[in-house]
From TrEMBL, chain A:
InterPro entries for the chain: Beta-ketoacyl_synthase, Ketoacyl_synth_C, Ketoacyl_synth_N, PKS_Beta-ketoAc_synthase_dom, Thiolase-like, Thiolase_acyl_enz_int_AS
Ranges of residues in domain Ketosynthase family 3 (KS3): 1-396
Chaperone in keyword set: no
One Pfam family cited in the UniProt record for this chain: ketoacyl-synt
PROSITE patterns named in the record: KS3_2, THIOLASE_1
Name used for this protein in its record: 3-oxoacyl-[acyl-carrier-protein] synthase-1
Alphabetized UniProt keyword annotations: Transferase
Gene Ontology cellular component list: cytosol
Source organism (scientific name): Chitinophaga dinghuensis
UniProtKB/TrEMBL annotation, chain B:
Name used for this protein in its record: Beta-ketoacyl synthase-like protein
Source species, domain of life: Bacteria
UniProt-recorded Gene Ontology molecular function terms: acyltransferase activity
Gene3D superfamilies linked to this entry: 3.40.47.10
Species this protein is from: Chitinophaga dinghuensis
């Protein structure tokens, strides 16, 4: 089977605009999650990992805010930095482009509603509400992906993966498979989501947002902290362009149980984990650590603990990076895979920020301090609404 | 590619008609979308109250799967061996707009859960117990190159033995479903040309 390597990567987040900046911040235990009091997002203060005012502008100076939305600028900055690290032929018909996102340009829906309300506010109070003019085309993910592809001169039809919270990892897996199917020699896999009132109000309507910074796997966890960011990995079948990692096997499963709640047994995520390991030819004891989804909702973390047991991974170190980044939705699988690759390369297992007291019924080995590992494989897992799960092995090139 | 997958069934829903393997099996001329969906549900199911909670995207995909899988041997396969690759143009925008209209008063969790396009796959998986691979792609037009190549790769490189492959688009009253059942064996090879011909 054709091997697929990671040639370059990037993360743009509240913690920095390169992979290295991000990894250094995480290694020092710093988090992007802060308390925000901003009526544009929510009536009450909330914790989230958001880019500071001016932060994106400092990264994205060359991309005009009149021409590109926040979502698009996140992608542009992330892709441009990743491309600078490699010499792949971006204009080749053998170069694919994959975008992972859940909500893309949904900020435009919010802006169109605000605009209509502003018109009413300045007009006569007896006037009927101004019609909301929704820029539907600009919110269609395929059109947005094409705009980004055109900027870089990518020639192939962009592929957009929108499978809830598993999108980022699934986009990497999709890129790997399209290379193995012989369709591409290299694929630029990028993903982003913006923290919006749309998403925050939705998670709040589920009472799924933690009152403080999220606490994955902790006994006192009470929900997610949301985040925003972008990340990119460039995949190649050319060993000469490879960085430190080769992609192992990946797999996807569905719980077939509930559209907004996870599996009661964790067996479906476990099945994906087992396929990822067996397809790579590794055993649970070969896995240096598992980078779990770890959203810090009661049910997600409980389900993951059960899955780790079923897959024979109960004793392997497990971490969740949500305490550093919040839940970045379509970017989460990408950001967390990249940070995890950096950690394995340095031989460290990162702690689960804000985890103190074990809080799942099946005992698992949650990492709560920096430890060292000689292992050469890591397992990344994600789960999401719609009952979807994905797992994938990343291996250091020996 | 050396490996092949085969189309073993088709269901098309458009212009207020449902076509199974090319034959019109039901129609409701002139009906509004919700009315059309309700009529189709009564015709092909009538036994699944959860249907009424779904958004139009999920109802459309669910109905096409219902038509395609009725009495199908696919339902006897191991649940991990059946997956789906769905796609559309507007993701969940049709529901996104309705959800966001509730936010200024009382954000609706019942609508929010449908603001992800892959929920339709969750609904089909719950209905039939399918636990295999699933991915939702978004593209400006039905990307028949991707939607033939990727499922073919899945059927050769993963435990999947059967896969629903579809374009499921809805935006207000405009909708279209083109769903095919794909298996490892059959007569009609799944490729860009065969998918284009079904459209």
């Amino acid at each position: 089977m054709q091997k697929v390597f990671v040639a370059a990567d990037n993360i743009v987040s509240p913690l920095g605009s390169t992979t290295l900046q991000n990894f250094e911040q995480v290694l020092q235990g710093n988090s992007g999650i802060q308390l925000h009091d901003n009526a544009a997002y929510a009536a009450a203060p909330f914790y989230a990992a958001m880019l500071a005012p001016g932060q994106l502008e400092s990264y994205a100076g060359q991309y005009n805010a009149n021409e590109y939305t926040k979502f698009e600028r996140l992608l542009l900055v992330s892709i441009a930095d990743a491309l600078r690290q490699t010499n792949i032929d971006t204009q080749s018909s053998r170069t694919g482009f994959i975008v992972s996102t859940t909500k893309g340009n949904i900020e435009l829906l919010e802006q169109s509603v605000e605009k209509a309300q502003a018109v009413v506010a300045v007009g006569d109070i007896h006037e009927p509400e101004a019609p909301v003019e929704i820029p539907v085309h600009e919110m269609q993910l395929g059109a947005t992906a094409r705009k980004i592809a055109d900027h870089f001169g990518f020639v192939n039809e962009p592929v957009v993966v929108s499978s809830a919270c598993i999108s980022g990892l699934l986009a990497i897996l999709t890129g790997k498979r399209l290379i193995q199917a012989g369709i591409y020699d290299q694929v630029i896999v990028t993903g982003a989501d913006v923290l919006t009132r749309f998403v925050l109000s939705g998670f709040q309507s589920f009472q799924a947002v933690s009152a403080g910074p999220c606490r994955p796997f902790d006994a006192n966890r009470s929900g997610v902290s949301l985040g925003e960011g972008a990340a990119t990995v460039i995949l190649t079948n050319d060993p000469a362009k490879a960085g430190a990692f080769v992609l192992g096997n990946g797999a996807v499963s569905n719980d077939a149980n509930h559209i907004s709640g996870p599996s009661r047994t964790g067996e479906e995520l476990a099945a994906a984990m087992q396929l990822a390991m067996s397809g790579t030819g590794v055993q649970p004891e070969d896995i240096g650590f598992v980078s779990a989804h770890g959203t810090a909702t009661l049910y997600n973390d409980e389900m993951e603990a059960k899955a780790l047991h079923h897959a024979g991974l109960a004793e392997r170190p497990v971490n969740s990076l949500k305490g550093y980044y919040g839940h970045t939705l379509g970017a989460a699988g990408l950001i967390e895979a990249i940070i995890s690759m950096q950690a394995l390369k340095k031989g460290v297992v990162l702690p689960t920020k804000n985890f103190e007291t074990p809080g799942v019924t099946m005992p698992v080995n949650i990492s709560n301090a920096i430890t060292h590992t000689q292992a050469t494989h890591l397992l990344k897992t994600v789960s999401g609404f719609g009952g979807c799960n994905a797992a994938m092995v990343f291996s250091l090139i020996s | 590619m050396s490996n092949k997958a085969y189309i073993t069934g088709t269901c098309i829903i458009r212009n207020n008609g449902i076509y199974h393997n090319g034959e019109l099996v039901w129609e409701a001329p002139g009906a509004e979308l919700q009315e059309f969906l309700r009529g189709a549900y009564d015709q092909f199911s009538g036994q699944y109250p959860k249907f009424h909670k779904m958004d139009p995207l999920s109802k459309l995909g669910w109905l096409a799967a219902e038509v395609l899988l009725k009495d199908s041997p696919i339902l006897q396969l191991p649940k991990e061996a059946v997956g789906m690759i769905l796609s559309n143009r507007s993701a969940s925008l049709d529901t996104d707009i309705r959800y966001y209209a509730t936010v200024k008063d009382f954000a609706s969790p019942a609508l929010f859960v449908y603001t992800l396009p892959n929920i339709v796959m969750g609904e089909i998986c719950i209905r039939h117990g399918f636990k295999g691979e699933n991915t939702f792609f978004v593209s400006e037009q039905f990307d028949t190159a991707l939607l033939s190549a990727y499922p073919t790769e899945l059927l050769s490189a993963t435990p999947l033995q059967a896969c629903l492959v579809a374009w499921v688009e809805v935006m207000e009253q405009d909708y279209e479903v083109i769903m095919v059942l794909v298996e490892r064996n059959g007569q009609e090879v799944l490729d860009k040309e065969s998918l284009d011909a079904i459209r």
